[in-house]
Write a structure and sequence with these properties.
Strand order of the largest sheet: 3-5-4
Shape: elongated
Radius of gyration: 20 Å
Oligomer: single chain
Structural class: alpha+beta
CATH superfamily of one domain: Winged helix-like DNA-binding domain superfamily/Winged helix DNA-binding domain
CATH architecture of one domain: Orthogonal Bundle
Distance between the termini: 31 Å
Largest sheet: 3 strands, antiparallel
CATH class of one domain: Mainly Alpha
Helix content: 55-70%
């Protein structure tokens, strides 16, 4: 159902939850598009999935391929190909798992660590730029609300 705001000449939805998620969806798309522009300046051939894998392994050194599959919500074969590609490019290294001989622990190589650091810095700079017009207190409140929602969804 829509109401009309005659002062601002805009349609107003009474479905605030949908509006909130639409706004978050739009913001995430803007962030991702700008982030990939930044990634292209760091390494032009780096794909979105490669970035996701490198960032996951960088944040979780020693993670297994199975954990990467769970994080990425992708199938095993797709992640196996991605890991093989990242190993071939010299961005990942793997070691046998201490307790499970079938598993491999993933680590960033020195080149992968350099990419990870550059992408992490680009993400930080972009986030600061996008949030610059928002007062610090509002940023803190937004983070609290999003963390609360994320906690509820984790149940």
């Amino acid at each position: 159902m829509y109401l009309v705001d005659f002062v601002n000449n805009k349609a107003m939805s009474t479905n605030r939850p949908a509006q909130i998620f639409e706004a978050m969806h739009d913001l995430v798309h803007v962030y991702r598009a700008r982030m990939m522009e930044g990634v292209a300046s760091i390494h032009p051939e780096l794909t979105h999935n490669e970035v996701r894998a490198l960032m996951f392994v960088g944040r979780h050194p020693g993670a297994t391929q199975k954990e990467l599959v769970q994080h990425a919500s992708a199938d095993k074969a797709q992640i196996a190909r991605l890991v093989a590609l990242l190993l071939d490019k010299g961005w990942l290294q793997c070691a046998p798992h201490e307790h499970d001989k079938r598993s491999r622990c993933l680590h960033l190589s020195p080149q992968g660590q350099a990419l990870f650091n550059a992408v992490r810095q680009a993400r930080s700079t972009l986030a600061a730029d996008l949030l610059q017009p928002v007062p610090a207190a509002s940023q803190a409140q937004l983070l609290d609300l999003l963390e609360q929602l994320r906690g509820q969804l984790g149940r």
